[in-house]
Amino acid sequence: MGRVVLVTGAARHLGGLMVRSLVRDTSIDRVIGVDVVPPRRPLLGADFVRADIRSPVIGRVLSTHEVDTVVHMGVIATTHQAGGRTAMKDINVIGTMQLLAACQKSESVNRLVVKSTSSVYGAGPRDPALFTEDMSPKHPPTSGWAKDSVEVEGYVRGFARRRPDVAVTIMRLANVIGPRVETAMTAYFTLPVIPTVMGFDARLQFIHEDDSISALHRAVGSSVTGVFNIAGEGVLALSQAVRRTGRATVPVPGALLGMVGRALAPTRLVDFSTEQMRFLTYGRAIDTERARRELAFTAKRTTSEAFDDFLAGHGLGPTLITSVVDGAAGAAQTVTSRGASHA
User: Fold this and answer.
1) What is the pLDDT of residues 221-268, one digit of tens each?
2) What is the CA radius of gyration of the chain?
3) Sheet containing 167-173: which strands, arranged edge to edge?
4) Closest CA to 182 of 327, 322, 325, 310
5) Which of 56, 151, 140 is nearest to 105 (CA)?
6) CB < 8 Å & 24+ apart, contacts of 121-125
7) DSSP letter string over 236-255?
8) How far, CA to CA in Å, does 78 sit from each of 4, 148, 293, 343?
9) With contact defined as beta carbons under 8 Å apart, do 119 and 230 qualify?
10) Beta bridge partners of 32
11) Can you tell me the distance from the alpha carbon of 14 to that of 186, in angstroms, rounded to the nearest whole number?
C-alpha cells in the first residue's frame, strides 16, 4: 500500500487547506481528514472520517487505513471556537494525549507532524530580540491556548522518547494571517477602533496562511525531525500595523485593555485573555534560520506582505470613512474614561 496521511482538524480552515494541499501531492496515495464535524468545503479527493480524537475510534482509523503519517492540526486557539475554556482544554490536551496513545500503539505510523505556535515562548519585557527553538521562555504562558500548546508539546516530546522509530516534527508558527483565515488577531485588526496599550508598541510577526500550509507540507515530505520556528521575514510594530488598517486607535492603560476590548467586541473572536494582552503589550519575534537551513523553507511573503494581503482581503486601508471611525473612537474613549474613574 502507498503512503497514507491523516490530518486532524480537517473541518477548520487551515486543516482543510492542509488536506487539499496534500491531495495535490503525487507522492501521497491517500489523504484522510478527521474532525468531529463535516468540512464546509469539499476536500477534493480526500476521504473524510467523522471522529473525535478523544475517543478510541481514532486508533481504529489509524489501523484500518494503515496510516503512516499523522498531521496534528486539531488544537483550538480560542474559547469561542471550543465553546468555553474547559471544552477548549479538553479538546487540546486530552485530545492530543488520546491521539498520541493511538499513534504509540500503531504499527504503521512512522511520522508525526504537529502544528504548534510561537505563543509557547510567552511575552514579556525580558524577552530576547529573537527566540530560537532552543531557548526557554522568559515569561512562560500561564493560561489559555498558549499554555495548552506548551502541554501539547510536552506530551509530543514524551511520545518521541517512547517511539524513537517515529520521526516527530513540531512546527511553531507565528500568528497566521491572510485574506481568508479568521483568528483572534485578524478579528482584532478589524475592530472599528483598535485599543492598544499606552506607552508600548508590540513587535509583531506573521506567517501568511498559504505559507503556513507550505511549511507544514514541507515537514510531511521531509525526514528532518525536531522543532522549527516558522514566520515571514521581518517585524511590524503594532503602531505600524494599526496605521495600515486605516482604523482609529485608542491607547489605554494596560489594566483597562481587556475591558475596553470586550466592550468594542463583546461577541466576536477577538481574544483579550491575559496571555493575549501581554502579547499586545510586548509582542514577540522568532528566529527562522533553522527552518531555512534544515527544512529548506523560507516563507514567500514577509511579515509585512502577509499583513498587506490580509488588509486587501478584508477591504481595509487608510481610505476608510473617517467620520464613522471617529464616532467609534469616541465611544471607546468614553468606555476608557469610565473604567479609569473606577480604577
Assistant:
1) 999 999 999 999 999 999 999 999 999 999 999 999 988 988 888 666
2) 20
3) 47-50, 30-35, 4-8, 69-72, 111-117, 167-173, 226-230
4) 310
5) 56
6) 121/284, 121/286, 122/146, 122/275, 122/278, 122/284, 123/202, 123/275, 123/278, 123/279, 123/281, 123/282, 123/283, 123/284, 124/278, 124/282, 125/282
7) EEHHHHHHHHT-EEEEE-GG
8) 30, 11, 32, 28
9) no
10) 6, 47
11) 14
Question: Is the CB of residue 326 less than 8 Å from the CB of residue 192?
Answer: no
Report the pLDDT averaged over residues 7-34. 96
Q: Is pLDDT at 271 greater than 60 in this prediction?
A: yes
Question: How far is residue 192's CA from residue 197's CA, in Å, rounded to a whole number?
Answer: 17
In the chain the domains, ranked by start, together with CATH numbers, are 4-177+207-231 (3.40.50.720)
Cα atoms found within 13 Å of the Cα of residue 93, Cβ hemisphere only? 16
Cell of 143: 493560561
The grid cell for 242 is 494599526
Helix-, strand-, coil-residue percentages of the chain, each rounded to 5: 45, 20, 35
Q: Is 161 left (phi over 0), alpha (psi -120 to 50) or beta?
A: alpha
Q: Are strands 4-8 and 30-35 parallel, antiparallel or unpaired?
A: parallel
